């Protein structure tokens, strides 16, 4: 459950890595105790779907 008093900041940065691009995630300003709750969600709700989308190439 999201608590209104617990705002955080998420920044995505794209970095050139030769012929590839690295996506860097910087998630800050959340309570130390929230890490265990927030961390698994990034994989299941962001990274896995993004990987699937990018693997499909231009056939979206």
Explain what this protein looks like in three dimensions:
35% of the residues lie in helices and 30% in strands. It has 60 residues and is an alpha+beta fold. The model has no long low-confidence stretch (mean pLDDT 86).
Q: Give the helix/strand class.
A: alpha+beta
Largest sheet: 2 strands, antiparallel
As laid out across the biggest beta sheet, the strand order is 1-2
Content of β-strand? 25-35%
Assembly status: single chain
- Uncertain regions spanning at least 5 consecutive residues: none
Overall shape: it is extended
Assign a percent range to the helix content: 25-40%
Let me know the number of strands. Answer: 2
Question: What's the helix count?
Answer: 1
Spatial gap, N to C terminus: 33 Å
The chain-level mean pLDDT equals: 86
Rg computed from alpha carbons, rounded to a whole number of angstroms: 14 Å
The sequence of SSEs as H and E is EEH
Can you give me a brief rundown of this structure?
This protein is α+β, with helices and mostly antiparallel strands and 60 residues long.
Furnish the topology, listing elements before pairings.
Elements: E1 9-17, E2 20-28, H1 35-55
Antiparallel strand pairs: 1-2
Structure keywords:
1 helix; single chain; alpha+beta; 60 residues; two-stranded antiparallel ribbon
């Amino acid at each position: 459950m999201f608590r209104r008093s617990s705002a955080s900041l998420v920044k995505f940065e794209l970095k050139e890595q030769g012929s590839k691009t690295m996506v860097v995630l910087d998630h800050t300003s959340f309570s130390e105790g929230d890490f265990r709750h927030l961390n698994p969600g990034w994989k299941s709700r962001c990274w896995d779907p993004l990987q699937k989308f990018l693997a499909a190439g231009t056939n979206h």
